[in-house]
Amino acid sequence: MSGNTFGTLFQVTNFGESHGPAIGCVIDGCPPGLPLSEADIQPDLDRRRPGTSRHVTQRNEPDAVEILSGVYQGVTTGTPICLLIRNTDQRSKDYGNLTMTFRPGHADYTYWHRYGVRDPRGGGRSSARLTAPMVAAGAVARKWLSSRHGIEIRGCMTALGDVDLPREDWSQVHQNPFFAATARHTQALEAYMDALRKSGDSVGARLYVEARGVPVGWGAPLFDKLDADIAYAMMGINAVKGVEIGDGFGVVRQRGSVHGDELLPQGFASNHAGGVLGGISTGQDVQVHLAIKPTSSIRLPRRSIDVEGQPVTVETHGRHDPCVGIRATPIAEAMLALVLVDHALQHRAQCADVSVPTPRLPAQPDDQG
Amino acid sequence: MSGNTFGTLFQVTNFGESHGPAIGCVIDGCPPGLPLSEADIQPDLDRRRPGTSRHVTQRNEPDAVEILSGVYQGVTTGTPICLLIRNTDQRSKDYGNLTMTFRPGHADYTYWHRYGVRDPRGGGRSSARLTAPMVAAGAVARKWLSSRHGIEIRGCMTALGDVDLPREDWSQVHQNPFFAATARHTQALEAYMDALRKSGDSVGARLYVEARGVPVGWGAPLFDKLDADIAYAMMGINAVKGVEIGDGFGVVRQRGSVHGDELLPQGFASNHAGGVLGGISTGQDVQVHLAIKPTSSIRLPRRSIDVEGQPVTVETHGRHDPCVGIRATPIAEAMLALVLVDHALQHRAQCADVSVPTPRLPAQPDDQG
Amino acid sequence: MSGNTFGTLFQVTNFGESHGPAIGCVIDGCPPGLPLSEADIQPDLDRRRPGTSRHVTQRNEPDAVEILSGVYQGVTTGTPICLLIRNTDQRSKDYGNLTMTFRPGHADYTYWHRYGVRDPRGGGRSSARLTAPMVAAGAVARKWLSSRHGIEIRGCMTALGDVDLPREDWSQVHQNPFFAATARHTQALEAYMDALRKSGDSVGARLYVEARGVPVGWGAPLFDKLDADIAYAMMGINAVKGVEIGDGFGVVRQRGSVHGDELLPQGFASNHAGGVLGGISTGQDVQVHLAIKPTSSIRLPRRSIDVEGQPVTVETHGRHDPCVGIRATPIAEAMLALVLVDHALQHRAQCADVSVPTPRLPAQPDDQG
Amino acid sequence: MSGNTFGTLFQVTNFGESHGPAIGCVIDGCPPGLPLSEADIQPDLDRRRPGTSRHVTQRNEPDAVEILSGVYQGVTTGTPICLLIRNTDQRSKDYGNLTMTFRPGHADYTYWHRYGVRDPRGGGRSSARLTAPMVAAGAVARKWLSSRHGIEIRGCMTALGDVDLPREDWSQVHQNPFFAATARHTQALEAYMDALRKSGDSVGARLYVEARGVPVGWGAPLFDKLDADIAYAMMGINAVKGVEIGDGFGVVRQRGSVHGDELLPQGFASNHAGGVLGGISTGQDVQVHLAIKPTSSIRLPRRSIDVEGQPVTVETHGRHDPCVGIRATPIAEAMLALVLVDHALQHRAQCADVSVPTPRLPAQPDDQG
């Protein structure tokens, strides 16, 4: 309602500002009995962390997470889990000159109108830094989904600006700084990013994320559709401007005889639907694509106005990612995990009485890489 | 939570099945004092209604709406408004042979697994017929948005299968059966649809919907973002597989120096953002694109299985839209209205104390048609 | 949020006005597979119905319920169940002279200030008639609780004005028009009520309601406590001014050595707690007491003001219950059922992983009648 | 839903365990622009704090609150406010021998069944210590209610076990360790408590809390009634077993001609309703009474069982309040504030269009002390 809680049965309430004392979240609804420690969460945070390569912001934050509640003797108790991340590297002077002006493409202008007051330090509440607590919460969700249902979630970058990146080798995703599922483009991407950074500009990206092993039957028919909740979660990530499920905008030109995935006794013959029909999972891979806009904070001069409405020129010299999409893969994975765990719990509440004998088709492997 | 209520402060709870006694909704949270009668709602229902041209399903339903509560002497009282639409044309024999099999691309399979029981008559709860109550609720939302804030919502089809449709003349939208904002393509579309129907196949579509006059400052920062809620609403419409805000997937290849909309004292210089920054409205037009998949119920034979897992061949001979996108424009408009009215009320709750002197830029006219 | 939906996983949205076309509700979240027809609901409605004895309002309504959705071939489908009750006996002229004045003790005054407009016919939305849809929804909840968990809910009147009524014989509850669990006081109550009616005055009542067979472990610790939700549900019934769980206000003078219910291997030794500890059910009977205020609409002249603030004298001559508590027992039972079904579903969602070996004590019989 | 979030528009999510690293809460929905610092919150925490007299637990905690987010330059920003209280005095050895047994009257037994695992240190999540974050959140709510609406909230103890305490002098409430609104009983109470402590037993209490200056028109008609929400909030406080609004259980024997508060041009003639009619505030004082059970942890030996179901004898020797009611007054005040701020924001959302000319009666002073 007030915009800072995600989920209904597995609820994550996010708090903090980029340069305040701390950021974090409270997870309410995590089932009891799940083994959990900081070591389960830190690796995902490290994947999203700034300063890991020269292609992302050089802000240097360890992003060390502390579990403040909800875990006793290494096991979740069913009570709220508070995860705290102290902010340590706060060079707020970088932003001082921006407090009275609005960066084109940035939330400065809209926050100022909505709240009448805003924390300008590092983007305050609108900073992408606030995705860190979601990655942390997503790690808890992933552990539960994996241990209870064997669900695996993974993502990769499929385009960085003009460079399309095939999904051809998932083992490469963490072998390059771009989350590309290919080894062939790393050099080209390095050069592309170096030129971009030199030009003072930024660029967009396209991501893919999928969940494997989701059982058939998760979701709800009219408004809490699994795909609608995924669209909500993904469009809520900073800078996302488009979301597709399965074939996405490709369906516009498709015929029904092509799009409708045939069912065979051994399983679905294809997965144009992206694992969701009528808002409910089919048991196939849940497949999602995202479009991420270029960073709005760039070095190139842009026309804008100040809080008095007077024209100004804005150049942003702080530490910014020239392509925010690069660090967004772990975020998209986390949000998908959070959607799925919520539907898992909803399904338990409402469909525990349901017993469907046959056929539960085997989930089909994704043939696209 | 249970999937049939939309919104938080202006809540719409939808009920009914395609071939049950009635469909309808309850609106809770409509502010008191709004003049309202069936005549405010019926025109939008008529635009979505089946049987209006040979290109849509020939099911013949008047879809007459009855206000059962919440209105006294022609004015809303602030109490729940129940809108009832009786089903009258129920040829359920058309579907009888489908109850034991699953149509490829249809929700049959997933409903059956989620609920263990389903109403197969006309698609039951998964029928696009259930969008009618949302169009009715949307008409109430639109009236409030228009009378309180001068907001206008409109939409059109921008591609029907292979035929791209320019947004060049809004006055044409209701002059052709395709909701096309152009007069030049009507004949081509007629021929295209006739051939399609003859082939027994179906095709996808692309829609555009916009809201004009939305004030700056509506939305919430982290999870109840205006654009996230729009994505949720749109992806929740039957058959939608992709949603874009503003430039959408076009941002992947854009540079930040192009994408970030500059601010001038007289207003924004462009609207790549689609009227939303940081999840909050900018005061510009809110612009949304949708991809709608081809109808799954087609005459062409498809391979499938029955509830025992045995292979079958499915041909659907009921009355179906060969392109469900054709009647979807009023639905997308209604859902956009429902998102906006909710954010309008949230804004009143939380930001009534806020007073921002300058600058509230004039909303910019959309230059794309 | 907007005040007309009860519950979170088993949600009931209530609509209608006393003298509008219809009243009813939509139940969202009822699990699929429950056999259900109007015959399961009507008996509870009949127990609450007006006109059943000379001690209640003489309004003559059959209160016939119609299931509009959510049931197919006599079984719930997991989709929303709309229950409709048409209003038939609407003598709104009885109330005509009251539209410009405020009845002392009535919601007239507060509705008028909150909404600026109100439906004055028969109390409009504030009429106790709106409890009928809750009784209907409660009947669905009771059937599920009974068939899935063997839970039985029952209630009785324990005081009518100055007459205390012992809980000594549950078989008598439906043998007298007062829902008294005793046969010894019927004549006294008849005389008491006749005198009251003759005097033109009204009187309060005290009710008791209990649930037997609730498993240990339903509820939530901090805010969605089972007893807190019961208090919310009961205080929300028209005219209720006090709620007690277990020993209620009797605990003020109790010692801890008396109040704390000892546990023996064969079960609890007593039930001062009323079946709830720390907001979670103990497996004992859940015991609730209510205080119901006297009807505000009485024949005796009262001082009041009109909408201009001018002094007036108000006498109410419509058909009113001289003791609204008489018909409230089925309502309290229904609300208790609705709270329990919601917690049952929440428990399934969040505690399905939990397995506690011993000891699950046998639920103890209530020794108080 | 998951039991740890209170409120809808002004949402407070509580986390922590009695002997974990920290307790705290996140407030989401606090309007922007409210001046706020730790100094606004600490005084209320200090009133609830343990160790302030010999009549309460001797646990020595400073309960120092830290604002982690949502405030910039001393003013709320409209974003989530995280309040953190580190636990410092954790003598968990006191409880070691209790982990395998269940204390009569305590949540041990029910938590164990619900969660299968529990944090036994100091009662873990069921400890009354978790009311501290609510008192902190309530202080924020009170500041907003006071500065925006001039609302004042106060409470006192009206019975400690067998000793009734008149509401005769509000200035005395903070002059004695019992929150009694009278100076005449302090000595008697001291002696009563000393004898109780010596006996190793505990006792119940009765509290009164009121809000003065609440405008007419706050509340909702059917389920989010102001009084229902108050009942929910109060029954959710640890150890509360009964809640009354206005005359409470006294209404059972009242006549309608007495109970219904007459309206005069200068205001209401009485306040039997306790400031709420039809679930909506009347503009009079909102008056609430609570019954609080005796502490379940006592030194006297009690019969119980262990987790294997074997009989044991339990004596509790930790530091416990012999009357938990003594420190409950600030908690009840805080919960009342949290209910009111939520309704204030709901009213803004839904009734901003409402303009009612006359009569808004002057709020009447409470004549009972």
Automatic annotation (TrEMBL), chains A, B, C, D:
Q: Which Gene3D superfamilies match?
A: Chorismate synthase AroC (3.60.150.10)
Query: Per its UniProt record, what CDD domains does this chain match?
Result: Chorismate_synthase
Q: What is its EC number?
A: 4.2.3.5
GO terms of molecular function: chorismate synthase activity; FMN binding
Q: Which Pfam families match?
A: Chorismate_synt
Q: Which UniProt keywords apply?
A: Amino-acid biosynthesis, Aromatic amino acid biosynthesis, FAD, Flavoprotein, FMN, Lyase, NADP
Q: How does it assemble?
A: Homotetramer.
Cofactors needed by this protein, per the record, are: FMNH2
Q: What class of enzyme is it?
A: lyase
Q: One GO cellular component from the entry?
A: cytosol
Return the annotated region ranges for Disordered: 38-60
Source organism per UniProt: Ideonella livida
Q: Which PANTHER family match?
A: CHORISMATE SYNTHASE
Matching InterPro entries: Chorismate_synth, Chorismate_synth_AroC_sf, Chorismate_synthase_CS
**Annotated FMN binding sites:** R125, S126, S127, N238, A239, G278, K293, P294, T295, S296, S297, R319
Q: Catalysed reaction per UniProt?
A: 5-O-(1-carboxyvinyl)-3-phosphoshikimate = chorismate + phosphate
The annotated pathway is: Metabolic intermediate biosynthesis; chorismate biosynthesis; chorismate from D-erythrose 4-phosphate and phosphoenolpyruvate: step 7/7
Q: Indicate which residues the UniProt annotation says bind NADP(+).
A: R48, R54
What task does this protein carry out? This reaction introduces a second double bond into the aromatic ring system.
Which free-text remark accompanies the cofactor? Reduced FMN (FMNH(2)).
Q: What is this protein called?
A: Chorismate synthase
Tell me its family.
Belongs to the chorismate synthase family.
One biological-process term from Gene Ontology? amino acid biosynthetic process
